[in-house]
Amino acid sequence: MSTAVASSRAPQPHYGRVLWMFLRNSLIREMAFRGNFLIEVITNAFWFCAQLVFFSLIFGNVPSVNGWNRMEYFAFMATGMIINTLIEAFFMPNCANFSELIRTGNLDFALLKPIDTQFLVSFEKLDLGALCHLVLPVALLGYALGEIGRPVSAVDVVMYVGLILTGVAFFYSLMVVLASTSIWFGRNQGLYEFWFYITIFARYPRNIYGGSPAGELLRMTFSYVLPILLVVTVPAEVVVGKTLDPSWITAISAIAAIVGLYGSRLVFHRALRSYRSASS
To answer: pTM of the predicted model, to two decimals?
Structure first.
């Protein structure tokens, strides 16, 4: 029997079951080191409280910042934290570890497994300590919306969740591209640093960057060239009921995520074709 026929008859993996196994293994790993898990949860909670206090002090002196009042900004901040938490929980540990797979030759074993390689290296390890941090920004979002007093419709909720997933998809695609460069560069230990520097702009609403030529350049660059501002600001604007300007900007966020996912997969497979096995 030919290899092609044999491979076509090979059972296809059940990705939902594989993902559940990854989750279970991550839970076992975290519970084996409960002290480390607890420290990570406390550290994330401290960082959250520090951010909350810092911006509370700012809005204690000014009523609004470029059209964002205190509660609207808290809703924006919660949105950014939700997206960032999902990225850190599901993808950051795996993408940061990708260069180690290459260096140690363990990528060979990933390539031999009968499952999509990108799926395997993206979801194998989950950071449950970071995932627990999701409770705090969700609570902050609920508090901010309650203080704003605007009724949130089912359509708003669906749009918000969809735009959150759009933001996660875009940032994931960016991270995959960064991790893929490890195959060409050998090591990519600067992934965390570069990720921090490029995403720090998304911690503030995009219209805050207006008012000066340099700020306008940043706003345009990170809205339409590398739209990290859009994928965080747009869902926050939707949920608090701010007018989207321009109105079609939601479509830009969705297109950016789709293009990002497609482009990152091309880069990932192009990088794999350049990979030289540890046994070769």
So the answer is: 0.85
Exposed (0-12), middle (13-18) or buried (19+): which is 260, by Cβ within 10 Å?
Answer: buried
Q: How far apart are alpha carbons 60 and 64 in whole angstroms? A: 10
**Per-residue model confidence (pLDDT) at position 188:** 63
Task: Find where tokens 């996912």 sit.
Answer: 261
Distance CA 29, CA 267 (A): 31
Q: Per the structure block, which two tokens stand in for 7?
A: 């491979």
Whole-number pLDDT of residue 7? 41
Q: How far apart are CA 234 and CA 202, in angstroms?
A: 11
pLDDT at 161: 93
Full DSSP string of the chain: --HHHHHHHSPPP-HHHHHHHHHHHHHHHHHHTHHHHHHHHHHHHHHHHHHHHHHHHHHTT-SEETTEEHHHHHHHHHHHHHHHHHHHHHTHHHHHHHHHHHHHTTHHHHHHSSS-HHHHHHHS---HHHHHTTHHHHHHHHHHHHHHTPPPPHHHHHHHHHHHHHHHHHHHHHHHHHHHHHHHHS--TTHHHHHHHHHGGGGS-GGGG-SSHHHHHHHHIIIIIS-TTHHHHHHHHHHHTPPPSSTTHHHHHHHHHHHHHHHHHHHHHHHHHH---TT-
Tens digit of each residue's pLDDT (9 = 90 or more) over 58-112: 888 888 888 889 999 999 999 999 999 999 888 888 888 888 888 788 888 888 8
Q: Tell me which of 91-100, 217-226, 239-248 is least confident.
A: 239-248
